[in-house]
Write a structure and sequence with these properties.
The chain is of the alpha+beta class. It folds into two domains: about 35 residues; about 70 residues, Nuclear Transport Factor 2, Chain: A, CATH 3.10.450. The chain contains five helices and four strands; from the N terminus they run ααααββββα. Strand 1 and strand 2 form a beta hairpin. The N terminus is likely disordered.
Length: about 130
């Protein structure tokens, strides 16, 4: 919410009424629900990505939540336009501590061999 919106409500009547607060709460809830529909709502706040890019990105991204760890699989492109797979592990270490993050990048040339080795190892887990 912008400060100007709150100030304009106060300027209309000279004071804030309960109806003004209810209206602001409803607008806030609607905007929070809209942000909740995005895969990465904090990126909007941080200004790192445009909302449209975030929506497009969902087709090339997967998230796996596993307890205190979250895995992100993203297809990205090099400056030359060549696709690559980026696998990121984000690990929660505890309250008050920063999350630990590790990333693996698999380029298109190695993707098939990586996939075969991963499939083989997953089969051994079963």
């Amino acid at each position: 919410m912008q400060k100007n919106r709150v100030l304009s409500l106060r300027n209309d009547l000279g004071y804030t009424t309960i109806d003004d607060v209810i209206q602001l709460a409803q607008e806030l809830l609607a905007r929070l629900n809209q942000l909740g529909e995005y895969k990465h709502p904090l990126d909007v706040r941080r200004g790192r990505k445009e909302v449209m890019i975030m929506v497009e990105r969902e087709e090339n991204s997967r998230t796996i939540k596993a307890g205190a760890k979250t895995y992100f699989l993203d297809i990205k492109e090099t400056k030359e336009g060549k696709p690559y797979l980026m696998i990121t592990e984000n690990r929660f270490k505890g309250e008050g501590e920063e999350r630990e993050r590790s990333t693996i990048i698999v380029f298109q040339d190695n993707a098939q061999a990586f996939s075969e080795a991963l499939t083989e190892m997953v089969e051994k887990l079963e």
